[in-house]
Amino acid sequence: MIIRWWRAVAGSQVVLQQYADHLERTTFKEMAVLPGHLGASLAVKVNGTDYELVVTSLWSDLASAGHFEQGAFDDAVVKPSTQKLLKSFDLKVEYFETLVTTGILDKG
Fold first, then answer.
1. Do the domain assignments include residue 59?
2. Does residue 38 lie within any of the structural domains?
C-alpha cells in the first residue's frame, strides 16, 4: 500500500472548515472512483493561530497513486482557488510504501 502525503497551513478556523468542506465535496469524491484508491483523510494540528494540515491518501500501488500526476510525479496538484484559500502549502507530495500495518489498515 502507498501513502500519498501533502501538507498545508490554514490561517484560521474558517479557512480550515472551508478547505475541509472542499475536500469532502470534490477532491475526496473524485479520488474515491479512481482505480486503486483505498481512502483519504485530512488531519489538523493547531499551532498558535495557524492550522497545520496533512492530507493523506491511500493507494494500492504506486501507479494508482500517480492519478494526480500533472507534471513531475511528486508535484502537488493544488487548484488556484485552493491556493488562494491557504496560507501556505507544499509544492511537492511525498509517497511512502507501507511495510507493516495493523488495525483497519491491516491487509490481513
1. yes
2. yes
Supply the range of the domain harboring residue 6.
2-96
Count of domains for the chain: 1
* pLDDT per residue of the chain (108 residues) written in tens, 0 to 9: 999 999 999 999 999 999 999 999 999 999 999 999 999 999 999 999 999 999 999 999 998 887 765 667 888 988 888 899 999 999 999 999 999 888 877 654
Give me the CATH number covering residue 54.
3.30.70.100
Nearest alpha-carbon partner for 8 in 56, 68, 54: 54
The one-letter amino acid at 92? K
**End-to-end CA, the chain:** 13
